Every structure is written in structure tokens, then in C-alpha cells.
């Protein structure tokens, strides 16, 4: 996988040898490690400064703040996939951790293959669930590339999204598609994620132009009474949507 597309992972583990073993296993599996943290303060700083795509957090950390409380605060900064590392099998601890909505659990000691599988499971689970109200979605999303891995997509480079049954079609800019799929013929990326769930990961610059289409206002080139033009794409505009759309755009009005 291209290093610019690799999943960047934060490891929160206060046992140095275990942290190094996890890092080696992640790098061997093709993932990137943005940083390792052994305490609360370091983990918070990394989340703010380096903005990881996924966090591996040991439930048992030294000090007054454990991994469960830390994870809640990490996700207040940015809602990302979370995998708990634990050697603890107490039902009370499990139930408390479960309330924080982790995307996977990994029991120690673990095998490198199991680590990679849990990351795949975490990514699948993350995009199938809704982001809780008030949480900040990531700037990048990871989508299945059809070749056995996930690829990074910057949401600002999404031109539009179409609903297709229980799937979603992601239409990217030419530049973004060429970056992540070099040498491939440009086509929409089909995601096995419901349309409504995809919309939760998009910013305020996206507008739902119909029941089954959402557009990025950044790429609107022309608006007519019944259609929108975005680069080389044309989207039909339902009755009643024209005025609403214009209110979302910086329109300089003049006499006709």
C-alpha cells in the first residue's frame, strides 16, 4: 500500500516491550504507526497533533486514568475506530468498555495475524455504525479498494455520492482517483455501506440534492432550475430544491 494511503495508528500501551511488538506487527502488515503513548498526557497530545486514523488502547494503564476513560476523551477530540487491548476477562470491565462503543477487542497475548484481522473488523464496524451526535468525524475516510485492503480518501475530494440499493457510489475528483488508484480507469467506487451512513462522515460543504444523491458544493459549476453541473457530472434537481440549493451557495444576485 502507498505510504500516503496507509492507515496511521496510535498505540497506547504502557509496557514498552509490548508496544514495540505491536508496532513491528503493524508495520509488517502494511500499516503505519504515527506514535506510541504510554500515558494519558502523551496519548491526548498525539491525538491532537498527529490526528491518527485508528487507536489501539490497552485497558489497563498505569496511573489514575485507565484506557477506557482515556478512550472516551480521545473520541471527544475526534471520532475514529478504537480497538481495546486487554488481558482482563472480568465481565464488569468488559461491560464498561463496551459502553464506549469500541470497534473491536484484542486479547493479549495476541498473534500478528489476529491483530491484522481485528483491524479489518474494526474498519468494517466503524463505517457501518452512525457517529454519535456531537462527535467530530475524521477528515479522511478509508474505503475498501477491492484488492484486499483499505485506501485513504480525503472527503474534500469527493464530488458526489449516489445511493445504489444498500450500497453507495463514491465519485472522486480525477486527481484523487489517480492518486489512490494509479493506472486505473476512473470509475465510481462502490461501497458496501448504506447511503445514510456515508453522509454522516461528510462535512458542511455537502448538500443532499435528492433522495439518493449528495453533492459537494465545492465542485458546483452551474445551477439550472432542474439540474446541477459538477465538473463533468450532471445531477437532476428535484422540484423545490432549486431555491434551497442557492441559499447554500455564495450567489451574487443581479437584475435579469
From TrEMBL:
GO terms for cellular component: cytosol; protein-DNA complex
The UniProt record lists the keyword Transcription regulation: yes
Recorded GO MF terms: phosphorelay response regulator activity; transcription cis-regulatory region binding
PROSITE patterns, A to Z: RESPONSE_REGULATORY
Start and end residues of each Response regulatory domain: 8-123
Chain positions with 4-aspartylphosphate modification: 58
Keyword set, alphabetical order: DNA-binding, Phosphoprotein, Transcription, Transcription regulation, Two-component regulatory system
Alphabetized SMART domains for the sequence: LytTR, REC
Keyword Signal found: no
UniProt-listed GO biological process terms: regulation of DNA-templated transcription
Name of protein: Response regulatory domain-containing protein
Organism: Dyadobacter helix
Amino acid at each position: 500500500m502507498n505510504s500516503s494511503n496507509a492507515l496511521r495508528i496510535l498505540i497506547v500501551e504502557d509496557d514498552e516491550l509490548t508496544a514495540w511488538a505491536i508496532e513491528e506487527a503493524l508495520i509488517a502488515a502494511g500499516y503505519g504507526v504515527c506514535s506510541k503513548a504510554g500515558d494519558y498526557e502523551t496519548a491526548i497530545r498525539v491525538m491532537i497533533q498527529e490526528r491518527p486514523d485508528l487507536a489501539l488502547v490497552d485497558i489497563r494503564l498505569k496511573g489514575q486514568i485507565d484506557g477506557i476513560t482515556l478512550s472516551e476523551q480521545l473520541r471527544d477530540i475526534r471520532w475514529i475506530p478504537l480497538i481495546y487491548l486487554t488481558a482482563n476477562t472480568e465481565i464488569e470491565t468488559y461491560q464498561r468498555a463496551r459502553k464506549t462503543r469500541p470497534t473491536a477487542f484484542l486479547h493479549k497475548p495476541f498473534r500478528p495475524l489476529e491483530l491484522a484481522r481485528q483491524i479489518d473488523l474494526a474498519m468494517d464496524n466503524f463505517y457501518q455504525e452512525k457517529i454519535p451526535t456531537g462527535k467530530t468525524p475524521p477528515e479522511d475516510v478509508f474505503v475498501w479498494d477491492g484488492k484486499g485492503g483499505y485506501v485513504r480518501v480525503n472527503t474534500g475530494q469527493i464530488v458526489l455520492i449516489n445511493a445504489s440499493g444498500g450500497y453507495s457510489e463514491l465519485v472522486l475528483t480525477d486527481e484523487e482517483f489517480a492518486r489512490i488508484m494509479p493506472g486505473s480507469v476512473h470509475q465510481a467506487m462502490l461501497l458496501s455501506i448504506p447511503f445514510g451512513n456515508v453522509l454522516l462522515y461528510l462535512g458542511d460543504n455537502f448538500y443532499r440534492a435528492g433522495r439518493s444523491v449528495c453533492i459537494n458544493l465545492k465542485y458546483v459549476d452551474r445551477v439550472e432550475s432542474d439540474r446541477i453541473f459538477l465538473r463533468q457530472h450532471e445531477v437532476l434537481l428535484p422540484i423545490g430544491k432549486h431555491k434551497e440549493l442557492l441559499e447554500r451557495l455564495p450567489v451574487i444576485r443581479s437584475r435579469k
